[in-house]
Amino acid sequence: MTKFFFQVALTFLLPLDLIAQTNPAAQAAKDYTIAVAWQQHSGEYRALSFQAYNFAKLSLQERLKGADASKPNCVVVDIDETVLDNSPFQGHEIQKGLSYAAKDWSEWTAKAAADTVPGALGFLKYAQTQNVETFYITNRDQADYKATLSNLQRLGFPYADDAHLVVKQGTSDKEPRRQQVLGKYNVLLLCGDNLSDFSNVFYREGKNTKEEVDKAQQEFGNHFIVLPNPMYGDWEKLLYKGEHLNETQRAQQRIEGLKSY
Ligand SMILES: [Mg+2]
């Protein structure tokens, strides 16, 4: 207990670098700083996001030409780091000396304060003018449902309603939810920051990720629109050999996993 109060007191009183020196987990969480800084401050992050959605628009125009006329058309998008930017949450966690705490994530999503990923709103509004609906398939929880809808609606995202927001249903596997949409719609393209937003072959079937990406190379910028997210993703799992590593162990695995010469 004394140790706990000591740590709380330190959190309020000490500058960040001193927190990191006295708390190894905080030191490990600092690994994420450059990724969050890049997303928040670089022009390149914005440019890549616009590039992704410019490709999305071109691809949509092409795909509309060959679409099955017997079904309505849609695009499927992920939410986090695809249409909403959660980098303020990630920044908040690093400043607290953490990489992620579920309680803080709920606090952040409840604020409905995330901004748009550059280009996302313009693209989805364009799709709407072409009678292309948007389905938001996200691994946010049911508990975050109302605030997520309100965040999307506040920013003016089209089809931000009960019929089009699909949150996590027991499993983080998006394939069953994709199949539900595919049964009724032509899914003209999918947008995501994580390859699992497109297909399970990349991370969820035990295959070699890079080989699967190479096999699918014609799909990117075409059927699969990829957004940049340097902060987190399924890619991290490739580095961590073990399910229940703590933050310090994960940091060690990151160092050990680096290619060098
Ligand atoms: Mg995402």
Automatic annotation (TrEMBL):
Top-rank taxon, per record: Bacteria
Pfam families the UniProt entry points to: Acid_phosphat_B (PF03767)
This protein's record includes keyword Signal: yes
Signal peptide: 1-20
Keyword Cytoplasm applies: no
Entry-linked InterPro entries: Acid_phosphat_B-like, HAD-like_sf, HAD_sf, Lipo_e_P4
A single Gene Ontology CC term: cell outer membrane
Sorted UniProt keywords: Lipoprotein, Signal
The name this protein goes by in its record: 5'-nucleotidase (Lipoprotein e(P4) family)
Organism for this UniProt entry: Pedobacter cryoconitis
